[in-house]
Amino acid sequence: MIQLRAHHGMCIKKFEGKGYNKEFVENMTRVIEQLEKEPIMISLNEDILCECCPHNKNGCETNEKVKRYDKECLDGCGIKEGDQMMFRDYSRLIDMKLKSTGRWKDICSDCEWSGICHTE
Ligand code: SF4
Ligand code: SF4
């Protein structure tokens, strides 16, 4: 079971091999492979991606912002902390509830990566 913070579902869908540093990118690549085989548990805390993030200093440096992303992602998808599913099903939910409704952009337009993720 892979613990995944809610908004990272969106980040994973937009991942194109870029990230904070080499270690972060390598870890994210490995996690994405794992997600095809193992179920996820939705979390609101530091997760398997945060483990290799340079902004994780005993917790995320941008905690206030990412908690907001997590909460809005949960609300938008109609799920809750602790829910378990395969990533492909979470990915479908994100497409249906956040992408096609335009809500995704509202959730994380102030993220430093929005230039990549929100450019069609
Ligand atoms: S803009 Fe930021 S929070 Fe939103 S999906 Fe991209 S990396 Fe994730
Ligand atoms: S910026 Fe924060 S939420 Fe995002 S991966 Fe790093 S520690 Fe985790």
**Coarse structural class:** mainly alpha
Q: How many domain units?
A: 1
Distinct ligands: iron/sulfur cluster
- Give the low-pLDDT segments: none
Largest sheet: 3 strands, mixed
Kindly report how far apart the N and C termini lie.
Answer: 32 Å
Number of helices: 6
Shape: globular
In short:
The chain has 120 residues and is mainly alpha-helical. Helices cover 48% and strands 8% of the residues.
What keyword list fits this structure?
120 residues; mainly alpha; 48% helix; 8% strand; globular; binds iron/sulfur cluster
Kindly describe this structure.
The structure is a single chain. With 120 residues, this protein is mainly α. The chain has one domain. It is 48% helix and 8% strand. A three-stranded mixed β-sheet has the order 1-2-3. It starts with a strand and ends with a helix. The structure holds iron/sulfur cluster (SF4) (2 copies). Residues 7, 10-11, 14, 69, 108, 111, 113-114, 117 line the site of one iron/sulfur cluster (SF4).
